[in-house]
Amino acid sequence: MSARGVAVRVGLGRGWTEFRQRALDVGGLVGELWPWVIGAFALHALSGRTMGDTALDVGLQGIPGLLAVSVVYTGLLGLSLALVTDQSDGTLLRMKAVPNGTIGYLVGTVLGRAVLCVETALILLVLSAWLFEDVQVGRVVTWLFLPGVLVLGLLAILPLGVVVGAAFRSRASLGLVTLPVMGLLAISGVFYPLASLPRFLQWVGELFPVYWLGLGLRWALLPSQAVLAEVDGSWRHLEMVGVLGAWAVVGLVAAPVMLRRMARREPGSTVRPDAAGQG
């Protein structure tokens, strides 16, 4: 096996180890999941209210959006925070000292976050099926296409987490990303139809993967009449796959390059102040 293949295998093992440790850490797991559980109950409290002139239930419409937001926060913001933290405490530089260690580190870290995203999605699906009888978890089409939509969304979102994390040098500076991400969520139609926004905001929202991930999740989980609230009254399957696929390709090309630049940025003896303050 080549050196890169060994590094990938080590990274897969690292990701699996992180998953097992997280699964046994009840406190940490609760800390990761409680915002989404509370969000699901909050949406349930909105059940019975309809959205605008449609007959769509506000709470039900929000469930796929909550899933999409959990992927963005866990896969983009959570992953970028993990990278910045590992840069600050010297973990990334230690990985750099190992042949192809950066590859193994990247595979393990991304895999750990991907598993957490899937774990969160499964728990939310079970909870949503209990809270909302109209969530379409019993359809064959749901289980045929939902995994594909989620995987494609992860391929589009996770590399962005690597790129964002590699672009910043401290957790304080990374905080500057939170507000733009919240703004992006606001114009991506995750909790209300994108068609209700001004056309120029629709165009901006359609440029990014968050809207298309939410659209795919709504297609998989909501009743068929929910399509009436979408732009042009269509699920736009080809556009969904095309945009998410394009973001995945761009991210998968850019992420390793940005991570290598991040690893070269500082000498091995340097420990950043925010890491030193943890001691």
UniProtKB/TrEMBL annotation:
It comes from the Bacteria. GO terms for molecular function: ABC-type transporter activity. GO terms for cellular component: membrane. Its main location: membrane. Keywords: Membrane, Transmembrane, Transmembrane helix. It is found in: Membrane. InterPro entries: ABC-2_transporter (IPR052902), ABC2_TM (IPR013525), ABC2_TM_bact-type (IPR047817). This is ABC transporter permease. It comes from Umezawaea endophytica.
